[in-house]
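ok here's Spy/CpxP family protein refolding chaperone, seq below lol
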Amino acid sequence: MTRSIRTMVATAGIVSASLVGGSLALADGGHGTEQHPGVTHKCGQDGKRFERGRQFFRKLAKQLGLTEQQKTQIKGIFKSYREKNKPLLQAMHNEKRQMKELIMSGSADEAAIRAQSAKVAAVQADLAVSRAAMAKEIKAVLTPDQAAKLKVLMKEREKKMEQFRERHGHLGDGIPME
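and the structure came out like this:
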């Protein structure tokens, strides 16, 4: 991919990931997961990643000056995409698990690994398209000033992430080794 496409995809991913994390905060009315005892989140120790996403969204909403109406609209967008993406996220989990099993088996040949990798990539592409559509809907809720400010904030965040990657190196291939 060219650098501009990678940057665009990364920015869309950051925006959607940030907003998705924040949508959880909006969806539960700002309360923690204790209000949803039947819901489990694979978010690390004590739900720290979940809480970081909520905090990030609150900060972003404040920086952008989102109105309560905008927050409500964005909440609706997240809810619809959360339902729409649920099967894709499950497929991603399954395909990555199968990839991990292939790699860990030690007996998989290159063709099998490439075939499984193509399945993972296909699901990732579907998710990227869905996230881009969601980001487009969310941007439509923002004022032109808010959209411009979001663009600046995301560039700053991407720059910080790039600096982090440079300091810490590549953090893995995305295949959980649990």
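fwiw Helices lie at 3-27, 48-64, 68-105, 110-141, 144-168. kinda neat tbh
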